Amino acid sequence: MIGRSLNADLRKMKGTSVILAHLLIPIITSVIFLIYYFFSPWNENMKVIAFYQAIGAGLPVLIGIFTASVMEQEQNAGDFQNL
Prior knowledge:
The chain is an all-alpha fold. The protein has helices at residues 2-13, 18-39, 44-78.
């Protein structure tokens, strides 16, 4: 049952940008931080702390955006019939 539900969700998301965003956002974020830290005068501890603070602030925003996107998709697909 869970496998079929996950398969259905993956098929629904196939045409959206959610999967692409899940792949690109971590890569782009890592590249930006690596470039910034290469030129930054901070010590290693401050760099790690700043990275975790940015992740802690950014992840809830991304979770909210992705959750709203999936909920809107469910509403448009059938008014939450399977929930």
